[in-house]
C-alpha cells in the first residue's frame, strides 16, 4: 500500500488540535492549543466559551500543523475529524472546518469517534494488533472495551454515573484545588498516606461496570464531618486515599475483564491514564499477570488530533468515508 497522509482535527472539549499522521503511526505534527487557562477561572469547561475559542483558533492550528509537517493541503489524502461524543458546539467547529476543507479540496472526509481516537493513540507509540482489551479513563468516559478487530468494539463495562476524570475533578474542587483537578490530586497524593478508608464500589459479583458517585460523596461527607467536629484534615491524605480507592477498582475490574476475555494485551487510554498511581499499579499487575501493557506517554493520553488521524487510518483503508451530511453528535455509541 502507498503511504496515506491524514490531517486530523479534534475540538470535542477544551483543546483545539490538528495533526498530520502517515499510515496511522508516523506523526509529522501534532499541534495542541489548550484552553485550560481560560476555563480555570470558571472551575470547569464552559461550553459556549470553548466553542468561541475553537472558532478563533482552528484555522491557525490547522495551518501550523501543515507547516510543521512540511505539507500543503494538496499533499493530504484525507481529512479526519472527531464527530462525537463531546460538547456539541465545540465539535461543530472541527466538523465544519473539516467539511469545508474536504469540499474545497475534493478530499475524502472521515468522521472519527473520540474514544476510538484515545484507543488508537497508542499506535503512534507501538503498533498493537487486535484483539486486545482497552481501559478508557477520561473526563467523560470510564469503559472497558474489547477491541476484536480494527474498528470492531465490544463494551464490557462502563460507568453507571460519574466518569473517573469527573470524580477526580469534583473531589479536587471540594479540596479547593484548581481545574483540571486530576493532575492536582495526583501531585498531592504523592505526599499523602492512604490512611482514610474510602469505599470501593465493586457492584454485583463479576460486574465490569463502575460507579464513582458514592466515593465522591464519601469524600465530601468526610470533609464536612471533619469541619463540623473541628478536626483539621490533611488534604494530601484525602487525595492519596481517594486515588487509592479509584485505582483499586480500575485495576481490579481490568484484571477481571482480562480473565473473562482471555486477553493478555492491554491498552490504557484517556486523560486519567496520565495518573501516576494508576500507571504504577497497572505496571505491577501487568508484571505479576504477564500482560503486554501499553500506556502511551502523557501527551497522547489527553486530547490531541494525532490520535484522531491514527484512528482514521483503518477507516480510510476500508473506504469508510463520510459525506457532507456529517454532523457533530454529543452522545455517540462506540
Ligand atoms: O481525555 P481527556 O483529556 O479529555 C476527555 O476526553 O475527557 O481527559 C481529561 C480528564 C480530566 O478529568 C483530568 O482531570 C484527568 O483527565 N486527568 C487526570 C490526570 N491528568 C488528567 N486524572 C488523574 N490524574 C492525572 N494525572
Ligand atoms: Zn478525550
TrEMBL record:
Belongs to the KAE1 / TsaD family. It catalyses: L-threonylcarbamoyladenylate + adenosine(37) in tRNA = N(6)-L-threonylcarbamoyladenosine(37) in tRNA + AMP + H(+). The gene is tsaD. It comes from the Bacteria. This is tRNA N6-adenosine threonylcarbamoyltransferase. Its cofactor is Fe(2+). The lineage of its organism: Bacteria, Bacillati, Bacillota, Desulfuribacillia, Desulfuribacillales. Its main location: cytoplasm. Pfam families: TsaD. It is an enzyme of class 2 (transferase). Required for the formation of a threonylcarbamoyl group on adenosine at position 37 (t(6)A37) in tRNAs that read codons beginning with adenine. Is involved in the transfer of the threonylcarbamoyl moiety of threonylcarbamoyl-AMP (TC-AMP) to the N6 group of A37, together with TsaE and TsaB. TsaD likely plays a direct catalytic role in this reaction. The keyword Metal-binding applies. It is found in: Cytoplasm. Fe cation binds at residues 114, 118, 303.
Amino acid at each position: 500500500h502507498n503511504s496515506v497522509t491524514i490531517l486530523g482535527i479534534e475540538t470535542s472539549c477544551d483543546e483545539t488540535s490538528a495533526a498530520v499522521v502517515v499510515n496511522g503511526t508516523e506523526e509529522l505534527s501534532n499541534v495542541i492549543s489548550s484552553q485550560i487557562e481560560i476555563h480555570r477561572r470558571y472551575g470547569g469547561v464552559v461550553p459556549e466559551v470553548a466553542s468561541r475559542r475553537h472558532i478563533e483558533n482552528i484555522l491557525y492550528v490547522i495551518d501550523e500543523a501543515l507547516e510543521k509537517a512540511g505539507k500543503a493541503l494538496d499533499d493530504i489524502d484525507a481529512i479526519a475529524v472527531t464527530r462525537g461524543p463531546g460538547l456539541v458546539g465545540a465539535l461543530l467547529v472541527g466538523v465544519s472546518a473539516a467539511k469545508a476543507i474536504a469540499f474545497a479540496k475534493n478530499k475524502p472526509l472521515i468522521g472519527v469517534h473520540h474514544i476510538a481516537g484515545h484507543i488508537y493513540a497508542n499506535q503512534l507509540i507501538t503498533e498493537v494488533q487486535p484483539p486486545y482489551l482497552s481501559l478508557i479513563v477520561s473526563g467523560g468516559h470510564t469503559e472497558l472495551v474489547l477491541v476484536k478487530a480494527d474498528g470492531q468494539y465490544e463494551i464490557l463495562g462502563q460507568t453507571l454515573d460519574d466518569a473517573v476524570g469527573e470524580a477526580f475533578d469534583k473531589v479536587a474542587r471540594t479540596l479547593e484545588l484548581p481545574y483540571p483537578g486530576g493532575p492536582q490530586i495526583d501531585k498531592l497524593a504523592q505526599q499523602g498516606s492512604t490512611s482514610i478508608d474510602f469505599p470501593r464500589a465493586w457492584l454485583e459479583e463479576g460486574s465490569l461496570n463502575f460507579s464513582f458517585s458514592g466515593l465522591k460523596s464519601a469524600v465530601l461527607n468526610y470533609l464536612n464531618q471533619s469541619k463540623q467536629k473541628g478536626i483539621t484534615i490533611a488534604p494530601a491524605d484525602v487525595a492519596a486515599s481517594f486515588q487509592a480507592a479509584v485505582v483499586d477498582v480500575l485495576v481490579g475490574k481490568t484484571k477481571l475483564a482480562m480473565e473473562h476475555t482471555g486477553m493478555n494485551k492491554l491498552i490504557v487510554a484517556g486523560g486519567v491514564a496520565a495518573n501516576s498511581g494508576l500507571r504504577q499499579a497497572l505496571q505491577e499487575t501487568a508484571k505479576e499477570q504477564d500482560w503486554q501493557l501499553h500506556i502511551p506517554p502523557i501527551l497522547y493520553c489527553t486530547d490531541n488530533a494525532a490520535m484522531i488521524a491514527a484512528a482514521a487510518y483503518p477507516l480510510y483503508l476500508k473506504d469508510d468515508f463520510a459525506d457532507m451530511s456529517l454532523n457533530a453528535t454529543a452522545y455517540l455509541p462506540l
